[in-house]
Amino acid sequence: MGVCSEDGKVQVFGLYSGEEFHETFDCPIKIIAVHPHFVRSSCKQFVTGGKKLLLFERSWMNRWKSAVLHEGEGNIRSVKWRGHLIAWANNMGVKIFDIISKQRITNVPRDDISLRPDMYPCSLCWKDNVTLIIGWGTSVKVCSVKERHASEMRDLPSRYVEIVSQFETEFYISGLAPLCDQLVVLSYVKEISEKTEREYCARPRLDIIQPLSETCEEISSDALTVRGFQENECRDYHLEYSEGESLFYIVSPRDVVVAKERDQDDHIDWLLEKKKYEEALMAAEISQKNIKRHKILDIGLAYINHLVERGDYDIAARKCQKILGKNAALWEYEVYKFKEIGQLKAISPYLPRGDPVLKPLIYEMILHEFLESDYEGFATLIREWPGDLYNNSVIVQAVRDHLKKDSQNKTLLKTLAELYTYDKNYGNALEIYLTLRHKDVFQLIHKHNLFSSIKDKIVLLMDFDSEKAVDMLLDNEDKISIKKVVEELEDRPELQHVYLHKLFKRDHHKGQRYHEKQISLYAEYDRPNLLPFLRDSTHCPLEEALEICQQRNFVEETVYLLSRMGNSRSALKMIMEELHDVDKAIEFAKEQDDGELWEDLILYSIDKPPFITGLLNNIGTHVDPILLIHRIKEGMEIPNLRDSLVKILQDYNLQILLREGCKKILVADSLSLLKKMHRTQMKGVLVDEENICESCLSPILPSDAAKPFSVVVFHCRHMFHKECLPMPSMNSAAQFCNICSAKNRGPGSAILEMKK
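Above: the chain sequence. Below: its structure as tokens.
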């Protein structure tokens, strides 16, 4: 609806319809407000302000009738109509009228009466149907219209007004408008000149404030440049707003300024203008549903270009991951841009490797860039990138070309081996790994089952890491036989020994055909393990072993072989003559437990006092010490003889004590068992029709109980008819169980004879 008034004329016309009317009144009209729903036929009402506040209504005969709502308090300078409530301001304050109840429900007095109301008019605006905002001078009041409780009615209006917020501003208020929970305030500003110290009119301000209970918080403030602001007064500015469009109109004598609420697109425009691309991108992502003029991708691309222009290549490349996402075409475009500026290395760590996958040429281009200048970086990319991203054969050829210039470059060789592995050319890869002595060689063999490829490379594997190589070969005997390994190591006996030794430790019998060879291998490369080998092997030829040990003068091994071959006396002689070790000789004699050896040992030691001392200390439990003592020559000085004799006596006493203890235990056990046997033999034995004679196998008892019978029952529970038992011999009158005697269980004497 459009409304205009001039002197006593009022015109109302539809902005979007052809409806129009005009009326002439007999009094000047200062201000006018129409019913919010004036377009409806039932709401043809408006109010005018001057000396009086008049309400005009159209009657059923299309005539207008008027009613005075208020008068007598000076000119009415502001009227606002919302729903069923009309608010107006005069020289004394602000009133609210309820159009339904036809009652005035409040009077809000003017605060600063020193200000002329015609120079500093009141500004009114409705936030909603029950919230009125009043701005007058520097004061702002937020009033809420509430329903009065029925018990409080009496003669009072049904509604009342409560001031929920009141605060002061720095400047004079020329207009108010609501903005969600905030307020838009048009302020008239006066400032004092620093030069002349005189007050002058400054540019008007449009502020957004957040009302609080007793104060306010400034959200934003903008100074407006309007023509002639130096001559304007507070009453010369007006603020109107359009609710549906969020538009605000600042009216001055010479200009009309239209303001609108900034949206996220405006904010992004400002950020882009200030080259704050990262903040602009973040703002667009947060408000992507609300932005209309911008696209996140466009902002992101602008950000990447800005970073590149600034020389921040690594940051630009890193941002590509987030901004380009899965757009393969954009990725390829950006890669070429980085190539043009010579920064392919910067973008390489961030290239997509799965979703999406770029053209192979892109990845090959970057690999070639690294291959020309950075072998380590090239190797890293080969390890990190899946092999299906690029043409493997092209890269292999490129690496081989570079190796022609630097054939010993370990980084390139290792990378080439990895490329061969991906290409399933395991033979070439294995050869390179062995040349480099690389730790992954065994893993490669196991992973790809390359045992057929290493049959002629066993020496290389053993040279690299003999322990791992032997373990792998022994774990896979079914793939590489023991015979094949031994043949391959024939020219490297030290490695052959390592393999056969590990094989023998695992199984004493698997490599028995090589035990004869192992004797010389142990003798040459590992003598400490020769004697354990001779002891554990049952397939070792003793004569050959003895010959080798005698040739090399291996006394301990020769002693063992002599004793094993039955030549204990020669072995003992060798210990005494070669080793001169009485303790070892005594230990050997104890192991053999042969009286002749003890005799030989005594004879050899009889003229050697240290040997006699050793014998006296250890012989007591195996040979009678008297035999040795009687043979000692008179006057021979024997070291520690007294201690040795004391030990002999102690050993003898210990033996006596042990024998007496054993005897006591034996007697006690015999007595206990005898009592147990006696109790057992005293028990009765059940004989019934089911028992049979162990000789004739017929029932032990006759079927006719009246017939006489004679039965013999032994302690072993075997039963016989008396006539079935053989007659006792002339040497012994005792009778024994034939069955138990035949099974060598010992004779079972008769315990019971039954007759009838």
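Residues 367 and 381 are 8 Å apart (CA to CA).
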